[in-house]
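Checklist before submission:
- one chain only
- standard amino acids only
- sequence pasted in full

Submission:
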Amino acid sequence: MNSCAMVGGHNVGYDVDMTARQIFDVTRNQFLTMLGPTAYRLLDTLPLMRMFDGNSDVPSGASLEKAAKGLDIKIPNKAKLHTALFDAQVTAEVMHAFRKVLKDLNIKELLNG
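Returned file contents:
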């Protein structure tokens, strides 16, 4: 069994693109080829936000703040938004909240019919 890293975030594709461009000076596809097909998996809160909003038109730039607000997560100091550590902490709370929502929906039962 191959092991892989899990990369999580809000609109994480953007972060992967920036990493590829800024650190390795390559495109996203070149970056993915460099890593290989099983190097990592993405866990992105933006598609979850779109699913729960019932609207696939939620723009890719929809804010982490909007996701947190929709899940009743309090952001104690909005001035810290868009700083790496604070956004990572808020994203972790958003992911945890989505996990709870999916667990409450008994998603495994829904998927297995």
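Reviewer check: Strands lie at 5-9, 40-44.
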